[in-house]
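Can anyone check this?
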Amino acid sequence: MDKNYKCVTDIGELRCYIGDAKTVAFDYETAPDEGFRDETKASLDPFRSHIVECSYSVEEGTAVSVPVKHLTDQNMDYHEWLAFHRKLLTDRNRIKVCHNIAFESAFSYHLGIVIQAPVYDTMCAAQMTQNGEYAFRKLSESGLKTLSASLLGTLRKTFSEMTDGMHFDGLDPQDAATIEYACEDSDQALQLYRIFNTWFDKYLPKHRCIVENLESPTAVYLGIMKHNGAPLDLQLMEKKKAEAEGEMEKLRQQIAFMIGDVNIGANCSTKAFRDYLYGTLGLPVLKTTLSNKEAADDQAMQMLKEWCDENRPELSDLFTMVQEYRKWGKIKSTYIDGHLKFLNPVTGCIHPDFFALSTDTGRFNCQHPNAQNMPRKTNDPIGVRNFIRAPKGHLIISLDFSQIELRVGSFYLSQAGDDTMKDVYLKNLDLHAKTTSFIFGVPYEQAHDKNSLGYKEHRTIAKNVNFGVFYGLFPRGLQKTLRFKAGIERSFEECSDMIENLKTGYPGLSVWPEEVKEDASRRMYMETWLGRRRYLPNINSSDWGQKSFSERCAMNTPIQGTAADILKLAVARILAGLPERP
């Protein structure tokens, strides 16, 4: 394809190029601010860098680059460009196309711009298209240069090859190589937009709808989330770090008193410690790793403690101390040292990376650091969640969908002809109390009464049954869940009776899972209610383990996946309302 790329510094010429185009692809080039020029990734952080150039494409094979903050004088007037750009990004009648729009969103938000739908992220689209018979593209396969090589037949220079050690603002914006590099980003995003939509329309139209209405607006919102980050109480963290180190040292000495100078490391998972347990002490191997070696994870330690309680009580305290030592170690390494490692020196916040398409069901994932999973208050002697503290004069508001996966499950049971669970929600009753009444054969009023005998334990069991039954919970699995997550002992027979009683109370639980497994076996995939597809190539495997896992995935997908879709729909609505709110 012939390329018609041009550098534009006159606002009138830019307006003329964009015209009344309904679809506009754009892309930013950035460079570090003074004071951060030597930091490797500063140009990816809107608090330490700035937009140097923006390219636009409205027709395949064409694009314009607009320099706004190159170190030369050959720039468009910044304020004229920003006013034009703001109007374009908030125009609800134009489709804004980007590759990895979360990045552009963070930098736009830093300038006070909330990008408005319709938007289209070609990185999201890539991950919703297939790269094989039963697989969708992974994030690592969805970079623009990777896609341009595989789908457009274009081999491109990397950023470092292009800049040769310079920052982008040091390049000559009128140089042909600079123009081509900047313009290719927006032009190729537009080309991929056409290619992916053609593929969606032919093979998976529902995925196009998901990309346009869920994933792309969500990507914009994730850019805003990353920009805002989470403020940390550094003084409290340093105080708690010292407390954790003190507790770990005390426990280390207590363990050493029992086992001598065996090296336990930072987490009691060294080879020396395993050899001591299974070799020197001769304890039974109650659990193995995937490579068939003796396990030393938390579950293995709990199992060994229970065995020692019965057979070698003099060793029981060792495993209590090991688990306590590990708990303190994880809190320190993950939630104190781990979070401080990613502290932004400018904002005093952590700015995690959020991924909306890194799980098979479409649920969110969070890294650098993982601020999505923090310990519950019941298993956290330090109070990790208190590390995130609003600045003076502000509040942090916690919002959550109540029992969303159970509500989605009740919807699917209703589709299977059983309205029992749905009616519990429609009548504003307590689902866990209702389940308690079913599995223990007591009146709802008694199950709901906090003063009734066994209330707390029965409710804990009901919660675990509720949250597991949609995912193919078996008696043995329920028994393990209650033991290791809730500290409740129940026999295999009791767990079997609970599940059967639940299915009697909610008849759809006997019908819906079988329909799902049969459907998945026939189609070899499962979908959410909105059509997000997950392939299950091993659903008909002769290997029982692979088949069983695929069947659990088949039941998991419509519940978790539909709940994830609902959350993303809500995020898109929040995004639409942000410009009207402070």
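Reply from J.R.: I decoded it. The mean pLDDT is 93.
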